[in-house]
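Is this the right way to post structure tokens for a design question? Let me know if I should format differently. Anyway, here goes:
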């Protein structure tokens, strides 16, 4: 089974494997490319839907929306996620509806784990 950059096992769907293969093929340059070529290739991967759109910043509400979409993709109910996370169903519903000031990183991490995912935060130079 493949592993991610953190050394954890990764169980990708056939569609995810195909998407990763397409990305690798497009980024497999025969020689060291210019920065402009790399940026153009990444932009084309974004335009083709193989990579997510770049954003200046992503807030907790954006991540909560992604987690809600993932829950629905997996066919889970808010009650299912609540049971996995050790929460009340009403807490999941409130998080998904944006009813709070924005979930903390810890809450988002627990939520992601309840969906079999991991939350990664990257600090980038501005």
């Amino acid at each position: 089974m493949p592993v991610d950059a953190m050394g954890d096992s990764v169980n990708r769907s056939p569609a995810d494997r195909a998407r990763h293969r397409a990305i690798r093929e497009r980024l497999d340059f025969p020689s060291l490319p210019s920065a402009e070529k790399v940026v153009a290739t990444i932009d084309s991967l974004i335009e083709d839907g193989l990579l997510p759109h770049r954003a200046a910043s992503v807030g907790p509400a954006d991540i909560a929306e992604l987690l809600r979409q993932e829950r629905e993709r997996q066919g889970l109910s808010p009650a299912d996620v609540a049971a996995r996370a050790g929460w009340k169903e009403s807490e999941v519903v409130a998080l998904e509806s944006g009813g709070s000031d924005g979930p903390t990183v810890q809450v988002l991490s627990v939520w992601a784990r309840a969906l079999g995912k991991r939350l990664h935060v990257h600090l980038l130079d501005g």
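Format looks fine. Someone answered above. Worth noting: The mean pLDDT is 83. The radius of gyration is 17 Å.
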